[in-house]
Amino acid sequence: MMLKSRFDVVIGNPPYAGFHGLTKEYKETLKHHYDCAAGRFDYYMPFIEMGLRLILRERCLVYICPSTFLKRDGGSALRQLIRHGYGIRRIVDFGDQRIFADALNYTGIYFFSSSQPESVLVQAGRYLQHETLRLSDGSFRSDDLPGDGSMWFLPTGPAYRVWQTTRAGHFVKLGSVATISEGIVTGCNEVFLMKRAKASELGIESDILYPCSRGSEVHPYVLDDPDDYLIYPYEPTTGRVIAENVMKQQYPNAYRYLKSQRARLSGRDYFDQSGKECYELWNERNIDNLMCDKIVVSELGDRNSFALSRRGILYGDTVCGIVLRDAEISPRGLVPILNSVFMNYYFRQLSVPKANNFIIFKPLYLREIPLPRAVSDRDARVLEEATQELSDRQLSQTRRSNLQRDVDRIVFGMYSLLPDEVLAIGGTA
Fold first, then answer.
1. Which listed residue, of 37, 63, 184, 308, carries a Cα 20 to 30 Å from 378's Cα?
2. CA 145 centroid distance within chain
3. What's the rounded Cα separation, in Å, for the pair 113 and 57?
4. What are phi and psi of 282, to 5 degrees?
5. Strand partners, 279
6. Segment 218-247, tens digit of pLDDT
7. Considering its fold, how many domains does the chain have in total?
8. Within a 13 Å sphere around the CA of 298, how many CA atoms are in the beta-carbon half?
9. Which pTM does this prediction carry?
């Protein structure tokens, strides 16, 4: 697209329409004209590319726009474009604060440039009383911005220092010691998920029926007994789909029920074209991540809520599971770290905000959690015992608060937080 004019400064507030707000035809038009229009991009992203094309060399583009391009998959092409073809000088990120009363999006002010500067100033903007704006700073080298399209995590405050020491190798990332997976996607919950009473009424064979945790049942340290049961038509050791003739012979009631629901299970183009059996799930996930002891977390929450889940309990599409690969790390010792005040603060910056002060817990963000390389025997014992006690639903609130305070003190020490940093994140020094 040819542009006849260039400008010293371009300032704007592009439309905030999301990917689903565009027609298929218009998406194709944008993809033809803009490099960043790839994947599930949002409408404001091509406006950023257009603005960058409009500025003169060594000049500036300033937009207030959604912050999703920093971390979401749909912003991958735009991040690569900015990193390799242009630049970004300054970010004022308002996090989960709503700047526009009528807009649900979470925004920031972005200072783009025609070339890549040596450093990027990142400021977290927080409105205090009397409309006073407080900015906390972090300075990043442009080389800190990944050029491969992966997310840009640019923390401020105490999280910035922990992020720096993680890059220096003082901590390990959760993704390097654990397999993290999203939950099972049935493709038709109304058919495959049911209450125990209905399963009994239908006579569904117990060997093909599993309790299945949902996000609303996962709390800090505590996992409710699942209300839902899932028909899981796969071999529990290999993960291979159970052949139809075996279904008929060994699970006749389940087969009869699923066959009666065939009309509801067909007609889904994405499924019918997949080559799966009609009674299969859309995404059954890796069996090794399901049929084992694990840590689970709700995919959406207003705070970190990690709990232990035993083998034999599966988890659905509103839950993520964490299976440790490193035998040196105890799941019981890890859960308190993940539920701590510090990690709640850190993850709120690592993830992306949603409405009502909620944040998203997806593998993309969970993999980046920094963990101590070593924990003393004493601290490990205290953390494991705390998990055991805090998982008791009958524990008094006073005892629960005292235990969590003990856990937080240990975690503050693990991450070498200073007293003023502890206060800054809402802890007790």
1. 308
2. 19
3. 8
4. -65, -45
5. none
6. 999 999 999 999 999 999 999 999 999 999
7. 2
8. 20
9. 0.89
